[in-house]
Amino acid sequence: MGTLFRLFFKRSNWALPYVVFLVIFVVLPLLLVILYAFQDAEGNFTLQNFVHFVNQPEVTHTFVYSVVIAVITTAICLLLGYPAAYIMSRMQSNSAVIVIMLFILPMWINMLIRTMATVTLFDFMQMPLGQGALIFGMVYNYLPFMIYPIYNTLQKMDHSLIEAAQDLGATPRQVFRRVILPLSMPGVVSGIMMVLLPTISTFALAEMLTLNKIRLFGTIIQENINNTMWNYGAALSLIMLVIIGLTSIFTYRDKHDDINDAGLI
After folding, report:
1. What is the distance between the alpha carbons of residues 179 and 161, in angstroms, rounded to a whole number?
2. What Cα–Cα distance (Å) separates residue 230 from each residue in 56, 61, 233, 245?
3. What pLDDT shows up at residue 110?
């Protein structure tokens, strides 16, 4: 009985389900991706998968194109999301809740269904599906992921700093540029991460919004996996994981640098 009591009431034991979950669904898949990426079809160690990626101009061009589309999508989401988050942070609580719900409601519907509705909308307006529709669909689907981190950061901001800047004679533009913007950078960085990284590797949106006319890097990975080219597909996935990891590291450093420049640490 005492052993059972210690098993259930020791706080560290409550973390065991999460550890098991991470090992099975995070660590093990990553290890398999790495293992397959450095193997050929016979299971021998090789770097040929990565050499094949470098020597394929079409694949490298698709990768660069995917990054460009992701950057454009992220930039548009930032230009639209920051003003929206700023306005919401200055609203009364009841009004802000209503606006937040308007952004949340579409997210209750599956992304593929929303994308199908976007395709239908373009068909109804007799507008061609292509790069413009792809960017529109990505902005529509990922804009809330830019707004919420920025809104949460602005909402939790210490408003006494703004009042202090105003008391010292700062103009509204100076207050925004020297106080609000630096303090909101953690939310901006989080929003960029939440939009940029998924859009680089997406493939379903590109297939539906361009009728397979435009292929993104995620589409190439999917095609290789579906064609049982596990090793090459794993190598492409590993390249994407490395880029995402490096981006996360540099973004994390920039985030703390912005906080330090703002005088918070």
Report:
1. 7
2. 17, 21, 5, 22
3. 86
CATH of domain 49-261: 1.10.3720.10
Bridge partners (DSSP) listed for residue 39: 45
Phi-psi map region of 134: left, alpha, beta (phi>0 left; psi -120 to 50 alpha): alpha
The answer for residues whose C-beta is within 8 angstroms of residue 98's C-beta and 6 or more apart is none
161-215 pLDDT, tens digit each: 888 888 888 888 888 888 889 989 989 989 998 998 888 888 888 889 998 888 8
Taking the C-alpha atoms of residue 143 and residue 204, their distance in angstroms, rounded to an integer, is 17
**Quick check: helix, strand or coil at residue 45?**
strand
CA distance 76 to 48: 38
- Tell me the one-letter amino acid at 233: G
Burial 17-31 (b: 16+ CB within 10 A, else e): eeeeeeeeeeeeeee
Report the candidate in 152, 148, 177 with the shortest Cα–Cα distance to residue 165.
Answer: 177
Cα distance between residue 193 and residue 188, in whole Å: 9
Which 3 state secondary structure label does DSSP give 39?
strand
DSSP conformation class of 10: -
Q: Give the containing element (helix H, strand E) for 48.
A: helix 48-54
Whole-prediction pTM: 0.83
Question: Is there a contact between 54 and 119 (Cβ–Cβ < 8 Å)?
Answer: no
pLDDT, position 200:
84
* Residue 45, beta-bridge partner list: 39
Give the integer Cα–Cα distance in Å for 198 and 66: 11
pLDDT digits (tens, 9 = 90+) for 208-243: 999 888 888 888 988 888 888 889 999 999 988 888
Q: Which of these, 75, 101, 97, 102, lies nearest to 195 by C-alpha position? A: 75
> How is residue 106 written in tokens?
């579409």
pLDDT(262) > 50 = no
